[in-house]
Structures are given as C-alpha cells and as structure tokens.
Amino acid sequence: MDNLPSLEHILGIIQVIFIIAFSPLIVGLMRKIKAKSQKRVGFGIFQTYYDILKLFRKEEMVSDQSSWIFRITPWVNFVSAISAGFFIPVFFVHSPFGVVGDVLLVVGFFGIGRFFMMLAGLDTGSSFGGLGSSREMMISMLIEPALFMTLFVIAGFYGGTNISTIVSSAHETSFLAVPGILFALIAFFVLMMAETGKLPFDNPSTHLELTMIHEAMILEYSGRSLALIEWSNAIKQMILFTLFINIFIPWYIAEQISFIGIIFGIITFILKVTVLGSLIAFIETNVAKWRLFRISDLVAMAIASSMIGMIFFFL
Amino acid sequence: MYGIFVLFSLGAVIGLFTRGHKNNVYFTYIPAIIASFLTIVLSFLILFSEPIQVNLFNILHLFNFEILIDGVSAFFLFLIGLISFAVSIYSLSYSKKLDDKKNNSSLGLFFNIFIISMILVIISNDVFFFLIFWELMSLISFFLVIFEHENKNNVNSGLTYLVMTHFGTGVIFLSFLLLYSHTGSFSFDSFRDIGLVPQHIKDIVFVLVFVGFGTKAGIVPLHIWLPKAHPSAPSNVSALMSAVMLKIPIYGIIRYLFDFNSIDTQDYVWWGIGMMVVGSISALVGVLYALIENDIKRALAFSSIENIGIIFIGLGLSVVFASFNLMSLSIISFVAAMFHTLNHSIFKGLLFMAAGSIHYSTHTTNIDDLGGLIKKMPWTALMFLVGSIAITGLPPLNGFISEWLTFQSLISIFQIPSSIFQVVLAFTILVFALTIGLVVATFVKLFGIAFLSNGQSSKVTDATEVPRFMLVGKSILALLCVLFGILPFIGLNFIVQAFDLSYIPLNPFEPISIKNTSGDNFASLMMPAAIIIFISVFAGVFVFVRIIGGKTKTTKYGTWDCGFGSSSERTRYTATSLTEPIRRIFGVFYKPRDNIEHEFYSEENKYLKKTSSVYSITRNIFDELLYEKVTMSCLSVLDKIRRIHTGKINAYILYIMITLLALLAFTGFGING
After folding, report:
1. Closest partner residue to A99 among B389, B511, B582, by Cβ?
2. Closest-CA residue to A161 (of A208, A77, A99)
3. End-to-end distance of chain A based on CA atoms, in angstroms?
4. Which of B15, B144, B456, B472 is deepest in the core (most CB within 10 A)?
5. To which H or E segment does residue B52 belong?
6. How many CB atoms are located within 10 Å of the residue A47 CB?
7. CA-wise closest residue to B215 among B147, B274, B282
8. Nearest residue on chain B to A123, judged by CA atoms?
C-alpha cells in the first residue's frame, strides 16, 4: 500500500460521503411517496435535511437517571454506521477499503450500534425504553440466522465475503442465471425490511405503545443526539439498499476508473435506489403492521428461503 | 520452572500458617502472583526454544513421572498463568470480604493448590500422573465449590459436581486403559504411535475421550453440574474454574485428536461431525438458559457452556476438513477454536470477576435487585461492558475476531467434496447465528438491568466502587480484550507458534485473509485499519457536528413519565419482562408456566381486586426429562442391590465364599484355556 492517497482512495471516500449526504434524501423521498399514495400532500423531499439541521441546533434534554451510555450511544451509532459505509462499493466496484473488512464486519458494526441502542433504551429507566429494547432484542435475535444463512449463500455463489469480490463477480453473472441467488434475494429483502424498521415489522411514524419498537428506544432523545440517531438510521438504510442493489442488480456499476463510467455508475445507482425506495414505500402503504409474535413467521420465511438457496447452491 | 511450584506451595503453606494475621491475604496471594507471572514467562520461553522433557522419577517402570512441555502445553500454560495472574491480584482485595466470617487461609490454600494441579495436569506426560493430578484438580475444586457451605444449596451443587466429575474421570480412565491394552505402556509417548491401534478401537476411545473430557467441559447434556458449581464457588474461584478449568478438557481432547492421532482419512469424518453436532447443541442450549437466568453468576456459567460449544464447533470443523485433506481450512478452523479458547478465558475471567465485584459491593447476584450500578461503580461497569461486548462477538474486541474466523471456516464448508455433509454442516450456521443473536440479548439484559436505569433498593444505594486491587485484576483482562481485538495478529501468531501450524505468521499491517482453493482472496479483515477508520470518522463527525450545530445547551431533567408523576421502581422493566418475547418464542423449550393470583377485597365481589401477583417459572427440561429419570432408575437399581446387604455375618461369609470359588474357577479356566 503506498502512502499517498491514490485516486481509488479518493473515490472510496467520495462514495462514503455520497452515502452520508444522499441518505436523508431517500428517507424524504420515501415519505413523500407514502404520503402521495395515501392521498396526502406530505412534506417536501428535502424536509429530512431541515429536520436534522434544526435538531443539531436545539437544546438537548437528558434524563437525570441516565448515564454516559445514554450520551455516547448516538455517537457510537452514527460513527459505526459511517464506518460500515467504507466497505460498501456504491458506484465503483473496487473500493480500496474493501480489503480492510468484509460483510461480516459491516454486520458487526451494525451490531455494535444496535447493542448500544438497546442499552440506551434501558438506561433512562422508562418502561417505554425497556419495551423497545425488549422487542428489538427479539427481532435482532430472530433475523440473525436468516442473515447469516443468506450471507453464506451469497458468499458461496460469488466466492468471497469481501463486498468488492461479491459485487464484481455478481456483475459478471446475472442473478437470473442462478436460482439460489433468487432465493437469497427474497430473504435479503425481508431482512432489509426488518433491519430498517419497515412496515410489517415496525412503524417508525407512530408513537403507540402497541406498535413501536425503534421509536420506543429513542423516545428520550432530543436535540443533537436525536439528529445523530435519525441520520444514522438513514445511513444504515442507505447502506442496506446499496448492498441489495449492488449484490443483486449491479448492472452498469463502474469497473474501471473512467470519467464516463463513473458518471454513468452514479446515474444508474441513483435511479436504482429511487426505484427500490419507491417500491418499499409502495409495499409499506399496502400492508398493515403485523402482530409482534407473527413477525417470527415472516422471519421463518426468510430463513426457509435462504435455506432453499443454500440447497440450490449445493446441488 | 520448579520455582513456580515452590512459590505456589509457599503461598498455600504460608497462607495457612499465618491464619488470623492481619496481612494473611498478602502472604497467600503474592507468591501466587509471582508464580503465575513465572508461568507466563515459562510458556513464552518454551515457545521460542525447545520443548522441555524431564523424567522426574520412575517407579517399577510403570509409573513414570515424566514432564513434557511442548507448544500445546505452553499455550494452555499461558492461559493458566494469565488468568491466575489477574485473578490473584483481584483476590488480594476480594478475599478480604470473607475476613470476619470465614477462614481465609483455607481458601488461599485451595486456591494455590488448584492452580498447581491444573499446571501439573497440563505438563504430565504419563497416564498415571495425568489422572492423579486430574483427580486432584477435581477434588480441590469440589472443596472450593462448597467453600461457603453454610448455604445448603452450595453443598448440593458441590455434590452434583462431585458425581458428574467422577463420572467423567471414570470414562477418561476407561479410554486410557483401552489404549494401554493396545500399546502396553502408560506413557503418552507410546500413545503417539497410535497407528498400531486398530481403527475401531480408536473410534471407541474417541467416544470415551469425548464424553469423559466433555463432562468436565460442560457439553450438553452432561452440563448439569456446571451452572450449579460455578456460581456456588467464591467469585475468584468461579473465574478460575470457568476461564481455565474448562479449558483443561479441551487440552485433553486436542492431545488425543491431533497429537496421538493424525487425521488424514475419511474414517474420521464422523468424529468431527459428532463434535460439531454436540457443540452446536451445547451452544444453543447454553445460551438459551443464560438468557432467562436472573442470577448473574449462573447466567455467566450457562454462557460458558455456550462458548465451549463454539469451541467444539471449531474443533469439529477442523477434524472434518482434515479428514477431507483440506489442510489450510483445517488450520483456520483450528486457529478459530483456539483463539476462541484464549478469548473465552480472558473475557469470562473478566466477567466473573466483575460479577464478584457486584457481589462484593451489594451482597447479591440477582440482577432484579440491582440497577443503576453504573453510577455507584463506574469502573466495574466499564469493565463489565468491555467483557459483554467481547463475549457478544462485536467489533472491535477480541470476541469478534474468533467468531469471524469461526464463521469464515463455516462458510468454507462448500469446499468439502460431498453434498450430504455440506447440507448437514450448513445447519450449524443457523445454530451458530442464532446463538450469536441470543448472546447479544443475554448481555444486553445482564448489563442493562444490573448497571443501567435507576436502582432504589438499599443494596444499590449503599454500593460503592470496589477496592483498587480488584479493579487492577479486571483491567488487565479488559485491556487484553481490547488488545487482541484491535491487534489480532498477536494472538494468531501466538497460536500458530504454539501449535506449530503450517500457517504463515501475520505481519502487523497485513489483513487476516482466507483464500479458497484456487488461491483467490476469499475474505480478509484488517482490524487495525478498521479501527483507524472508526476513530478518524469519529473525529470527523465530532468536528462536523460542532461546526454545523454550534454550541448547544444540555439540560438534565427527569425521564418522561407521561405526566403521572415520579416514575418509580415498579414501572421499571425487569429482567424477566425484558426477555419475555424470546421466552415466548422458545416456549417449546422453556415450557414457561405463568400463574396469576388475585386477591380480592371481598370474596363475594370479584370485580375489585386488592392485589394481583404473577409468578412465571420456566422449567429445565434436562433436569426433568433426563437426570430425574436417570437418578430414579439408579436409585431403584441400588435399592435392589441393597437387599443383599442383610447385615448378617453368615450371609457375608457366604458371599466371600462364592466370590472365592468364582475367582478360583475363573483363574483355573484361564490357565487351562
């Protein structure tokens, strides 16, 4: 490794900044689409940026029963989400940081964020926080087997757990050619919905004891901390979308450093992410929240799907 | 080397003779600290030079006390030395707790002898002495378990431990005898030429070795003693037992698998599969019980079962790969198992010491009685948090590295040239992943309920931070968790060196990489760089937030209570309610029973309830379905045997006669035949 930052390093950092900067827009866009399909006007798509900016300047209220765990959780969450972003190719396959960590490190970074989040939910002593942590615990525990099985299938088919390796070999073969990947896609989609708190699992736009999971944990946050948490969720969602897009539909992603290729990569990526976001928003308007204990059925479906993918892989 | 034994014995003896003296603990534990340090030095010396082989004495050419310290022993010596070093420092303060009511010196005596016996087990090169020291280790730990024998429960768990450990010893004894009958010598050296032994004998010996050592390691369903014995012992001893003693059987199994045998044909596949299946079951069952346990030490003991399970998954995988001649993969999974062994020792020692600190300050280990300890005991809380993150396998601590390696070797099963095995082994991934998910839940619960939120019971409000030495002991291990996490090459190179594996040692600035058969890079991980990224992102974000947010005010105020006035202790989430969803999902396994009892103001009017109380219990299916039946049938058989003990002397003389005649007939036939 040479000491001077090469063009690839710069591109790698640009990709991360792209994820960070672009992520609130996707959140805004999905909210807008949801509002439109529910015959509401909705906010403008840039509203998320204004919200975050406003929250950064607001006074923060901290519970006097909480400890430093509560204070550092937003930072841990935000920083680990961004760090995970370093290992994800967005519009250019060979991120120079790809060799540093693989998809398991990304899962680990998400895990550490979630671990602190659950602790923060308990830290304030409010029963809402406990409720959120308890449910989050259950869901995160349930999706773990499906997640690892799906990763196993993907890693097996594409010959590696390094995301650059996966994406570049996915680029060469279409998923339509391998049925196993198709099942992995289904499983991954369900997992993505669960991880980002989408509708059959969780509904972040309500504050109802019966339904809330993620919102319950962050109920006590305000001001700067809340901004960090909201933004890190947006980033996490963006990373998962990017993973989904680049693993399953990596068409037109830039393989070499060329100006046209990269511009083309960016444009197609934005298109794909918009389509995926709209699709998820559309699904969300069409399903109701499931009862908490039925979630395990949905996750079981994801597990079954990834298992079928695994069997296809071995055949 | 002899210095180590002299010092430990010195600690034991001086401690005993200075009982009642004010500085008794220093006399007991300072020699132990020095001796453990010497043990670490010794293990390093052996790693970088020749193995030591000394013949101490020889009785009748049969009982040959020979010491052999090779790389394998050195690795385990390092474990013993490291953990006892930290625990001995911790004990300097911890055992003061017992000053007024207990006889400290006997604890010190047993403590020292316990460490000596473990070292002796590791270094002896002969069946006879191996078993003697094994037995010594078991008995001393039994005395340590029942050390607080005023409590009836402790005696009970001690007895369970005694029975189970002797069952294990018996099976190990049997396996060694079987080997002896084929090699004709009690020396381990003769066992190394195991090629002479026919395959089916090797198979039987494997089962016996696995069951025997497995009992001591706490594999399911032979784990029954572990969650009883470990919490009963004083916490410094629990730390030693969980962190070190459970690794001694791993040592035994490794000796048999990789030292006595050389696994190279597919005859051995089922050994590996068996170990993986048992390992997976142990991991899952262990963590499921850990999750619902509200006693912090019992939960940690169950989590030890889970970690032993993960170690066995790695070892089993290594055997499977080796039997298909996939040597590089076999090495990776072996390294994963050994790294997890090392890591588990470190973080479990740390967590048990932290649990001991909680007990020291609050006199309880039930987390529902605790809460808010992070404000009273900030350093202990930090250490416990480090231990929790490490054990849950999250980056950037050491647990992540070993679980990453284990998962990577699990993924690599697609290189096995047999689809049946692939599909079977792939199920291990599901179990492994579920286990990891449940561990996170377990430790969120343990840390969250015990340390966070507000605790109002007098136990918590009177709690203070523990004395200096206890913190030093814990912080040594906590620092190692961080060190092995961000610089994993230290641990990996150590293992590669110790077991003399044909794996190229890593450079500090080189990623750990796993290559597939065609030589392409399959996966790589470079923790130092990941940490640098993490820290620089943190710095960047901090500056960024400062710039766009400017200076903001922070106000402290009570938690939102929905306007109902002070949120009290009773509205807090308890450990049981926190795990309720998981308990319900795994209802088949836990078989929870909820009893709701109402008390009414008057029996005629059942609408006005005075109080309602809920009792929720979960059942231990292993206790109920397996052990109760085994115990019952044993008792009924023993009952029948008892009938021949009539107590009349004539009957006994008759028995002696019959036995004599039978023996005569037996030898007579033997000669004729």
Report:
1. B511
2. A99
3. 40
4. B15
5. strand B52-59
6. 15
7. B282
8. B453
Instruction: Please list the helix, strand and coil fractions of chain A in percent, rounded to the nearest 5, in that order.
Output: 70, 0, 25
* Rounded Cα distance, A143 and B441, in Å: 13
Q: Does A1 map to a domain?
A: no
Q: Which among B622, B591, B637 has a CA at the least distance from the CA of B292?
A: B591
- Nearest-angstrom CA–CA distance, B573 and B556: 22
Q: How many structural domains does chain A have? A: 1
- Predicted confidence (pLDDT) at residue B19 exceeds the cutoff of 60: no
pLDDT, position B514 = 75
What gap in Å lies between CA B567 and CA B545, rounded to an integer?
A: 33
Contacts of residue A36, Cβ cutoff 8 Å, sequence gap at least 6? A42
The amino acid present at A264, given as its one-letter code, is F
Inter-chain CB proximity B545 and A65 less than 8 Å: no
Is residue A2 in a domain? no
Q: Following DSSP, what letter does each residue of B309-369 receive, concatenated?
A: HHHHHHHHHHHHHHHTT-HHHHHHHHHHHHHHHHHHHHHHHHHHHHHHHHHHHHS--BGGG
Q: How far apart are CA B296 and CA A233, in angstroms?
A: 33
CA end-to-end span of chain B, whole Å?
A: 52
pLDDT tens sequence across B92-137:
888 776 655 556 677 888 888 888 889 889 888 888 889 999 999 9
**Residue A25: closest CA among A61, A51, A58, A56:** A51
* Structural domain boundaries enclosing A250: 7-314
The answer to whether residues A88 and A15 touch, using CB atoms and an 8 Å cutoff, is: yes
H-helix or E-strand spanning residue B594? strand B593-600
| Helix B398-411 and helix B296-323, axial crossing angle in degrees, nearest 10 | 40
Confidence (pLDDT) at B673: 45
Run of H or E residues at A236 = helix A223-248
C-alpha B450/C-alpha B575 separation (Å) is 9
Q: Do B545 and A127 touch (CB under 8 A)?
A: no
Cα–Cα–Cα angle for A244, A250, A251, rounded to 5 degrees? 145
Each domain of chain B, given as residue ranges in start order, spans 263-506+531-547, 593-642, 648-673
* Beta bridge pairs of residue B57: B65
Q: Do A314 and B423 touch (CB under 8 A)?
A: yes
A252 within some domain? yes
Q: Is residue A13 part of a domain?
A: yes
Place of tokens 């379905």: B625
Residue contacts between A and B (CB atoms, under 8 Å):
270
How close, in Å, is residue B142 to chain A by CA atoms? 36
Determine how many CB atoms are found less than 10 A away from the CB of residue B606.
10
Token output for B502: 């044909």
pLDDT over 60 (residue B20): no
Instruction: State the nearest Cα–Cα gap between A37 and chain B, in angstroms.
Output: 33
Tokens standing for residue B332: 């990776």
ipTM: 0.94
State CA A100 to chain mean position distance.
Answer: 20
What amino acid is encoded at B71 in this protein?
A: G
Task: State whether the Cα torsion B287-B291-B292-B298 is positive or negative.
Answer: positive
Among A94, A134, A183, A306, the strongest candidate for a mutation testing the B interface, having the largest count of B CBs within 10 A, is: A134
Contact predicate A111/A148, CB 8 Å: no
